[in-house]
């Protein structure tokens, strides 16, 4: 078991949806967190509660900053874990800005991991994505299916794949391939925002939920607190779990849900029953996505705990509260 007292952690993308939840949890278990964000998509309000903690420091910097890790080590001393979440997160943006996406989502990651290794970090955990599988139809998706033959549907997917591969090649590297993450703080703001954040927003505004296509497409939705626990397990910071070897691991629930079922569940929980609106299928959408979760279960003893209905209830509660703030 790792002694948690004062373990020093870098979290890039700390003001993002997932980064802020991860940083809160790390601070709560007694770690020191050095957060980095350039606020290109992160938000101040996500880290409001962290700012008062004497175990949290924030740097408004890009991950492309030369010598970033060394500078943070000079300022804060004894840093051992790097959780690298900062990235261009929009797939459409990656299509119109492929070079910038490669630079930030792939090359900058390589530089960070090399520096972390040189400076004696214990672990470097990278936020990979189900987009690394392209449109592979062999479900459930196993880690080995993404390889040199995979056709990626966007520079986002390609860059995540290259960065995961480079991470896993390092002795301290663990890449977690996240399926569809949802939960409080996910921004419903654009047509490409996560479907759950959009449906929750529409249900609370009493607007019809919009389904692209026939709604029989499926996804593997994972709640943000399960994702945070997966990060801790990957770092060896989970109390009783084995420390997984360097590598690439899927993080999902292993359960497929149709978009129609999802819409019904959200409307039920929100006590709202307007008929849904069917719109044309979204160009480039994949039909089904489902994680094979055995590898991480075996290596780290991790398994998703939060049932979809509970996660949705929490998300709705948060969104209702946020409406009134
Ligand atoms: C996810 C990622 C995307 C990329 C992709 C790779 C999110 C938010 N998006 O896209 O960035 O990594 O995976 O596979 O994690 N839908 C509706 N109505 C709506 C919104 C969405 O029917 O108002 C449908 C959408 O057409 C899709 C499904 O819901 O079939 C899920 O959409 P999504 O954008 O949440 O996630 P996904 O898996 O398409």
Question: Your description of this structure?
Answer:
The structure is a single chain. This protein has a domain of 226 residues: Rossmann fold (3-Layer(aba) Sandwich). The model has no long low-confidence stretch (mean pLDDT 96). By secondary structure, the chain is of the alpha/beta class. The chain contains ten helices and 13 strands. The strands form four sheets. Strands 3-2-1-4-5-6-11 form a seven-stranded parallel β-sheet, sandwiched between helices. A two-stranded parallel ribbon has the order 7-10. Strands 8-13 form a two-stranded parallel sheet. The site of uridine-diphosphate-N-acetylgalactosamine has 19 residues, from helix 6 and strand 8.
